[in-house]
Amino acid sequence: MEVREYDRLFIGGEWTAAHSGRVIESIDPATEAVWAEVAEADEHDIDRAVAAARAAMTGPWASMPPAQRGALLLRLAELLRRDADRLAEIESRDNGKPIRDTRGEMLRAADWFTFFAGAADKIRGAEVPVGAQAHAYTRRQPVGVVGAILPWNSPISLASWKLAPALAAGNAVVLKPAELTPVSALELAKLVAEAGFPAGVVNIVPGYGGVAGAALAAHPDVDKITFTGEHRTAQKIMASAAGTLKRISFECGGKSPYLVFADADLDRALTVAVHSAFRSTGQSCSLASRVFVQRPVYEEFATRLAERAARIRVGLPLDPKTHIGPHTSAEQLAKTRSYIDYGRDAGFRLLCGGGRPDGFERGYFIEPTVFADVDNTSRLAQEEVFGPVLSVLPFDTEDDAVAMANDTRYGLVGGLWTSDVARAHRVAARIETGLVSVNTFRPILPALPYGGFKMSGIGRENGLEVLDDYTETKAVYVDLSTMEPADPFRD
């Protein structure tokens, strides 16, 4: 099989060789073979990228009218839609996600750029009433140079979550994709160049987290870091960023509760529960990995849920019939297997899955797995598996359900199913997550703020609220008085 070569980084609007001369090998998760080689950025390349971004903040980008920034974002959205099929195939080969999912993600990424294109010329300050003798107001100005560090599970989607608002607000960006999935970000760089963004506004530098990522987090000329990924990495970034008091925003892990009350529409709840637990091979921090079911319907729901999970088609990423593909890496597959072994050893009831699907001698594949009667204090219920492993737990009362849902260090997404409108609002207010959905699960929209409580993160992605994280507020006070100022030192 031919190996694709990406031997350049995208810095300052140009394709340039990496300082190290080394490459990152991208592994096809379905075959375990190298399918692409990407230039590996190191700290020297991060220095160059940050310098290019800093220069862009004093160049044409700095004086560009906001509506023109929006027009560039719209053009990038158009290019993403044009190349959606090609980019989807690349991303499926890079991270193993089914083509039916990655194509949708390309189109949704375009929606993010479209949404924030419309926001670019609507970022404004406000007049501050201080009386007739002065005029006071606020300005919203770009933070400056933004370092964006991506995870490997949804590279283009999460690149759009960070690039679109940062650029709409007038910042320049140095983006580091995950070393496991670097290819699609470089393809995105080609579209950035084609769209006509000024040199240095977007720089894309694949590299290892411990080298390129660490250099970006500590760089004194980076004004803000935005990171999506595991909370232990976020803690290291936070410590590193403290040296220069950088702004930070993190979207980290989750152990999302999904509450099913006895009065719920069980058929609809089942459909959504299965999809929300197993899409992306469970490799998402916002999926419903803990399903709490009220005891009168617990056995029925758990049995039917396992039956549906067993029908999920595990297959090759480029097969349009595939429901879920392989894990992205051998390391992640091993982690998932360790949790399945733990569940068995702990005596939890294995309802389906747990093994390698038939017909796959190679690739990082695992069956969708459902455990029932899981102890909510156990590792299986408390730790993020990041694989297709679902825990089902019974509850008796509303108070029990809320207490169990909140008994975790995470707080990203929660959901509940009920036909009682009062209960829906009551429980939604009590669940300690940044997003709560009722009679559905995890709607992700560019207009809807998204982020976590507790160890699930700091700040928000999406919504107009995210623009606060990419701008500084400056207060301006103009004295209008014609009187001589008082002289406190006159005497």
From TrEMBL:
InterPro entries: Ald_DH/histidinol_DH (IPR016161), Ald_DH_C (IPR016163), Ald_DH_CS_GLU (IPR029510), Ald_DH_N (IPR016162), Aldehyde_DH_dom (IPR015590). Keywords: Oxidoreductase. Residues 15-476 form the Aldehyde dehydrogenase domain. The active site is at E251. Pfam families: Aldedh (PF00171). PANTHER family: ALDEHYDE DEHYDROGENASE-RELATED. The keyword Cytoplasm does not apply. Belongs to the aldehyde dehydrogenase family. One of its GO terms (molecular function) is oxidoreductase activity, acting on the aldehyde or oxo group of donors, NAD or NADP as acceptor. This is Aldehyde dehydrogenase family protein. The keyword Transcription does not apply.
